[in-house]
Amino acid sequence: MKAKIRKLVTIVEETRRELDREVDPPTRRAAAIAVIENPFAGRYVEDLSELIDIGEELGALLAEKAVAALGITGGQAQSYGKAAAVGENGELEHAAAILHPKLGAPVRKVLEKGAALIPSSKKRGGPGVALDVPLGHKDAAFVRSHFDGMEVRIADAPRANEILVAVAITDSGRPLPRVGGLKSDEIKGVDGLR
Amino acid sequence: MPKVELRKRALVIEDIYHEGGPVAATPYRRAAILSVIKNPFAGRFVEEIESFSNDLKPLGLEMAKALIDALGGDPSKIEGYGKGAIVGSAGEIEHGALWHAPGGYGMREALGGALAIVPSAKKVAGAGARLDVPVTHKDASYVRSHFDSIEVGLADSPRADEILLVLAMTTGPRVHNRAGGFKASDIKVKDGLR
Question: What does the buried/exposed string (b/e) look like for A56-82 if buried means 16 or more CB atoms within 10 Å of the residue's CB?
Answer without folding.
Answer: bbbbbbbbbbbbebbebebeebbbbbb
